[in-house]
Amino acid sequence: MARLTRQGLPAGLSALLAVGAGLLTNLLTSGWSWPLAIAFAVLIGVYVGYEIWRASRDDAGGPAAPPAGAPTPQRRSVVPPWGLLPAKMHGRDEVLRTLSAVLDPGVAHEAQLHVLCGLGGSGKTTVALSTADAARRSGALVWWISARDETSLVSSLIDLAAELATPEETAQARVGVRSLTDLVWRHIEARTDRWLLVVDNADRPELLAPDGGQVSHGNGVVRPASGGLVLVTSRVGNAEVWGNRAVLHPLGRLSSDASARVLLDAAGAAAGSDGDAVALGERLGGLPLALRAAGRYLSSTAARLDGVTTFAEYRRLLEERFTTLLGRPSAEPREAVVSTWELTLDLLAEQGDDAARKIMRLFGGLAPEPVPIAMLDQSVLDRSLLFGRPARGWLPSWASGRHRPVYDPQAHSRVLSDLCDFGLLDRTTPASGPAPAVPCLVAHPLVAETNARMVRDDAKLGREVRGTVAALLTQASRRYDPEDPSTSLWWALLAPHAEQAVDVTPGHRGSRRELRLLIRALCTVSRGLCGAGDYLTAHVLAERARQVAAHNLTADDPAALVARCHVADAVAHLGDYATALEEYREVLTVQRQRLKRDHPDALRTRRELAWLQALRGMYTEAEAGYRELLDLQRHRLGAEHPDALRSQSDLAFVLAFQDRFDEAEQEYRDVLARQRRVLGDGHGNTIRTRHYRAHALASAGRFEEAEQELRLVYEARTAQRGPKHPDAVRTRQELGWVAAIQGRYEDAEEHWRAVLDVLRDTVGADHVDTLRTRHDLAAIAAVRGRYAEAQRELPLIVEQRRRLLGPEHPATLRARRNLAWLNAELGDDAAAEAELRTILAVWRRTSGPSSAEARLTEAHIEALPKHRRPGEPRPPLWATGYQTAAPDRTEA
After folding, report:
1. pTM attached to this predicted model
2. Whether CATH 2.40.50.140 fits 701-884
3. 8 Å CB contact between 801 and 838
4. How deeply is 397 buried, as exposed, middle or buried, from its count of CB atoms within 10 A (0-12, 13-18, 19+)?
5. Mind listing the pLDDT tens digit for each residue in 72-117?
6. Domain 82-250 belongs to what architecture?
């Protein structure tokens, strides 16, 4: 059947098409003629039946030998192309050792077939040549045949048969009297000396199989052998294609050092230092073909005429002339970096995978990073213009195929699998801590860049790719809850593609609806990143969404307001509460004018505004905001909606910070029961409520109960997100606080030093969480008599908190109070008392005269020398109860 397609059928169909053209003319001029149509159908049936009968007479033992009387095929040498062998090989030592061992006469091995597979340009032929060179030097026979196309393969096999068989046997094989492949293999297997058979460029494995068979059956051109080594080079890396007795050797990118060695060998030391060579090698993705192309260019006359003689200059020029440098005209397209991958896509198109090229162009619109397979949603691709959704036209629906899937799940799975098999995409499974791994696909950097440039250079293609990427991101952002701790890796993987979607869309040219969806998708990813603790990336992404909205939408557009809110959210997580609070206030003012009071966007803004008010110590305003929000949420969403439960938990938090512990405990018990029923014990919001309830218990003096609960929360958060996630770090910070207020200073210091190490690495030295930990460690140092350490740290912390939080923020006031206590301890009672009375006035005004913070400040004043009776000892900074505790209470 394969030969039917290749030989007789095209010519016959040409004739039939001519008849069909006549029928169409008749249709357009005289109307439809049923007798003529029936006659045409019968003619097709007779012709196809004849071709099938003729094909069935052919020999089924491999590639068809030329028919008798046909011109003699062009003779091809079975000697390896030694001129392509580089003077030195770099970075492939392991695979070369493995292949050499197979040819070692002293090592017995079972019959196997070895396949060098990988992306076009990965150096498969070069490795095969190096193996052949080693075999030749060891005395083994070496044969080299080309499987680039059927003509090359048949010609090479005939030449090999001429070397191995008698002239009579070869002549019989040439005219099809006997199987050409069986003849060759009968003589190969009869040899007692060592041998190597290389089948190069076998990118169409079906050519190596007998008609009706498969390569894996082991009776075609390549067969497992024990007397020598059969080595195939192919872009196809699917183990099922080659069979269970095949050993695949995937060739990936070269290491940085090996890449530099290839460049230095080709261009010479005058082209630059080792460091410059490493940098260029990394820019070229360690791809041998690209490295050789760069080296050849730098050593050429053209480079000197262009004024480019060094690795650094080539690297700079690459940004401007990528296609020119890596796609230089050549007699052999496989030797041009840019075109070698297009050959693979051409081959897949010939095999019916028309969508493969579109998938690769789609990767050109994504970042050169792992792409979650689940993000490549087949239903979204099926509806996209990029994948050829049928346009309306004059054809009826049954003829246009409008009711049939354009890109069905089976086609999607096959195309992705084929692209992986041919090395254009690689499978990878990133993992991060306890979060579930996410199966992904990734393109080689140069492959991704080549497709990205094609997308940028083709306006129509660019529009189609941008629209498809936006739709994929929109769907992907809806796939998971951004507050679910188990999905943190998902958002981290989406982030670079979301950022790229904005990069490829300067002055967005899509529809307003598409733009709004894209902005909201970017914001959802930003929110997921905040939940995962990556505040900086979240801020970058939200800011990009805000910029796109600002340039393309009106200021009061709901999507533009959502983008501003997510910028504020990221800013708040980075510790700038004042800026975030002001932004939320401005957005809510516009939303109140533009949206209904219970619109989801407005409800979320209200919640974040109230939370920031609580973090700023504005507890009265925060409580009022939460109570109004809860009424709206319960009316619109229901009392047990996750958003309403989150707000109820936050209200309890605010009550506890106003020392209304009984009210807070009542709210906490109610909301915890609901969250456990609705969300489950392991949900992030449930665990968050448990954390803050434990804090309230400690604030009320129930230390043992609080510490036990905090340990359980810490275990849960560590198991879900790892010990370095901000939530886990915050709980460990709280454990240190509970230890400190019980007088276990050593335990507290151990917790806080571990926390400080993580915070400096993740959020930086000036983040509010880091300042809190530094403050508590400085206070511990003062209590334990390390005054110099405390005196060095506390003034810095007070100043940084003034700048970040304001002079009357609770955290700033606590740092000022502890600094005043330290000054009194060092003998400056007058200055200490003045500062403490200033602080007391603020506490009385903001929290009330009977608040715990006001009472604690009064206790510090009474402990000063002039207020103590003679001989009365100064009370310790931290006693056993909450009232004399100095560490900060949780602020986020």
Report:
1. 0.73
2. no
3. no
4. exposed
5. 444 456 889 888 888 889 999 999 999 988 888 777 778 789 999 9
6. 3-Layer(aba) Sandwich (3.40)
